Amino acid sequence: MLSSYKGSLAASVLLLAISSASNINAETTYKTKAALGSALYFDRNLSLQRNQSCASCHAPERGFIDNRENPLQGAVSIGADGKSIGDRHAPTTSYASFSPDFYRSKSGEYTGGQFHDGRAANLQAQAGGPPLNPGEMAMVSKDAVLLRLLENSGYRDSFAALFNQQVLTDAEAAYTAMTESIASFEKTDFFSPFDSKYDRYLKGQYTMTEQEQLGETLFFSQQFSNCNLCHQLRQFPGQQRETFSNYQYRNIGVPVNRKVREANGSSADYIDHGLLQNPLVKASSEDGKFKVPTLRNVAITAPYMHNGVFADLKTVVLFYDKYNSRKKSRQINPETHNPWAAPEVPTTVALTELKKGRAFTDQRIDALVAFMKTLTDKRFEHLLQEN
Predict the structure, then answer these.
(1) What CA–CA distance (Å, rounded) separates 197 from 158?
(2) How far apart are CA 383 and CA 387, in angstroms?
């Protein structure tokens, strides 16, 4: 174990790590924790097979989601071993830093955290999950991660300068410093530039089309839609730095993604209990609830829902509309051409909130989609042509 080696032992282990590494890097010292975190975020050497990094499942060029081709059309990710298949869609890391630390309010409402069930209290805790997850980056221990860090001379110099000279002589301390650095990077404007058409519109730098304006009106309306009940952080629309999530948890009746379950070999009776699988949550009233995601970049981060069950953003709006519309056509999933499948957890569906508002016409559905497209960061706007 490397958890507390010192002196000559430290030198011996360091020499061993350097001499046996398959990819020795010689880098300049990173001047800030965010810069170090950037290097770590893209470093595939931090996975067992040296083939997967944070960026593999949260690709910066695609809105920070996993856009790698796989048989499940990106609904879930495949691990570094090339065969492990998860059960949940990798959420975007764009604007993730605005989610508060996981907490329970005085009224009993759970809010914040990272992952779909908030089991990681914050960004730093989240960054520590994938490297040691057997189904993701698959490193066997924090000691093994430390050896990979020691291979890189730039890391050795940077950790010493940004933390302390001893930080890479203890696996626990090194792992904490690594996750802190990654979290620092994820808090930068690189992930959260607030420069979409919507942001530019608020600054008078972009004129919305009539369709986009209608979508905006519907979205923020207390009378015509229920969008703002969950996807509005600030009290009034039109404010700067709106993240379009209240970071709370809801069960909106999402069905099972059967293709994913068949692929990952889940038993027929397996149920994803969502928030109830968070170790800090015990009440059955939280069963089947998932964190409300940001709508920033939503138009280019398909597929949708916690399990990637819907491929198209318009399908998501139609799914919501089924709760209010009496049209027979609204009770049909346009992607399967069958009736909407039953909720995975039917007992806690938020029917009161879902039925607030009015049924949408086709025109209004298209307008809502058009408005959500204006929430796309400027550097991703070219991707809208592909969606």
Answers:
(1) 38
(2) 7
CA-based max dimension of the chain: 76
Work out the average pLDDT over 262-286.
96
Contact 160, 174 (CB under 8 A): no
Q: What is the pLDDT of residues 134-170, one digit of tens each?
A: 999 999 999 999 999 999 999 999 999 999 999 999 9
Which residue type occupies 94? S
What's CA 159's distance to the chain center, in Å? 27
Domain membership flag for residue 192: no
Instruction: Give me the amino acid identity at 345.
Output: V
Q: What is the pLDDT of residue 8?
A: 34
CA-nearest of 355, 367, 98, 325 to 219 is 367
Tracing tokens 């905006």 back to the chain, one arrives at 216
Do 177 and 256 share a domain, yes or no?
Answer: no
Q: Which of 110, 88, 156 is nearest to 249 (CA)?
A: 110
CB-based contacts of 358: which residues, under 8 Å, 6+ apart?
A: 223, 224, 225, 324
Whether residue 77 contacts residue 71, with contact meaning beta carbons closer than 8 Å, is answered with no
Domain-located, residue 203: yes
For residues 327 and 256, membership in a common domain is answered with: yes
Residue 340 in tokens: 């909407």
What is the pLDDT at residue 191?
Answer: 98
Residue 332, beta-bridge partner list: 339
Query: How many structural domains are present in the chain?
Result: 2
> Quick one: pLDDT at residue 91?
95
CATH number for the domain spanning 30: value is 1.10.760.10
Query: Does residue 303 have a cis bond before it (omega within 30 degrees)?
Result: yes
Domain of 35 in residue numbering reads as 7-112+123-186
CA distance 70 to 68: 6
90 and 52 in a common domain:
yes
- The Cα–Cα gap between 68 and 59 comes to 9
Determine the residue type at 359. A
Cα of first residue to Cα of last residue in the chain, in angstroms, is 49
Average pLDDT rounded to a whole number, residues 113-124: 98
Predicted TM-score (pTM) of the model is 0.91
- Same domain, yes or no: 222 and 265: yes
3-state secondary structure of 4: coil
Residue 287 included in any domain: yes
